[in-house]
Structures are given as C-alpha cells and as structure tokens.
Model the fold of this input.
Amino acid sequence: MRAALFVLFILAAVPAAQAHVTVWPQQSQAGGSERYTVRVPTEGQVATTSVELEIPADVTVSAVLVGGAHTYAVRREGDRVAAITWTLEIKPRETAEFVFFARNPKAAQIVWKAHQRFADGTSADWVGVAGDRRPAAVTMLSPAR
Done:
C-alpha cells in the first residue's frame, strides 16, 4: 500500500515539476554562443498572453528568431538587451516555444528569470531558487575548452 501511494505521489509530482517556464539547453559552455529555446506552458484554465525573459547582465543576446504567430519586443539598457517579451495567446494545456541566440558569460551558470502573464491580468513570476514554488530556469555552464 505504501509503495502504491509513493508511486502515485511521484507520478502526480512529475507534471508539476515540468510545468513551468524553462530555457533549453540546460547545459552549455562558458563563453560560447548558444541557441536558446524558451518553453512556456499554460497549465491553468486561463490563456497565457505573454512572457518576459530577463537577460542577465553578463549574457549578450545576438538575435531573436522571428516567425510563427508571435511578436516580440526587446528592452534595452544602453546597447545591451536586458529583456525579451514574446506575445502570443497560449491556450490552456498548450505550450509555445520562443528562440533567441546569445553569448554565454564565463561563469558557472545562467539564471533566467521569467514573468508569465495571463488573459485575466494575473501573472506568475518564475524567479525563485531551485526547489522554490516558482523556480527560475538555470543553464549550467561548463568551462571553455
């Protein structure tokens, strides 16, 4: 009986653990260039209308992929891209992906903070640490070769 309850708990927890804004790949090389994909699911009953990804100060965005039904806008701080906001209606139980290209910092990781906005005016801020209710996405960086 305990084993069955444990299995049910694990199966119930898996979708919740994967149902947040993520950035792929989750591993890359320090100082290297990378193609990043932001995955945005709508897990509740209200459509997502936009997602804003904060770009850490030591990450250099070189391009944002254009295409599909979405639009995007960048917020700049001087010459650098400080945030990218993609706008698209993502219906409940659907997921959208957005792509950008960037040069990684010479660091151990990149923490990607995201703000998901919904049609009813609410939002979910994916900015917490690992294990938090709404964790930020993290890309681990291996040393340059």
Observations:
- The first strand starts at residue 22 and ends at 24.
- The chain has one helix and twelve strands.
- Residues 20-142 form a domain with the Immunoglobulin-like fold (CATH 2.60.40.2230).
